[in-house]
Amino acid sequence: MNQPSLTLDLCQSLTRLTRQMLETDQCKTQTHVLGRGRIYRITVELTPVPPEQIDDVIKAYQ
């Protein structure tokens, strides 16, 4: 995972979104947001991490 880190606040917001999506049995959603004077399309897709990859995911955050 060579992606920039997200802020704790953003991670918490994404966790809330994930919970809401799972409560309504949604695994993918799309919306539009406004930022810096432009409209952006945002797609969120929940993809479960296979059990054999969990250790690698945890290590990526250490």
TrEMBL record:
Domain of life: Bacteria
Name by which UniProt lists this protein: Uncharacterized protein
Organism per entry: Salinicola lusitanus
Organism classification: Bacteria, Pseudomonadati, Pseudomonadota, Gammaproteobacteria, Oceanospirillales
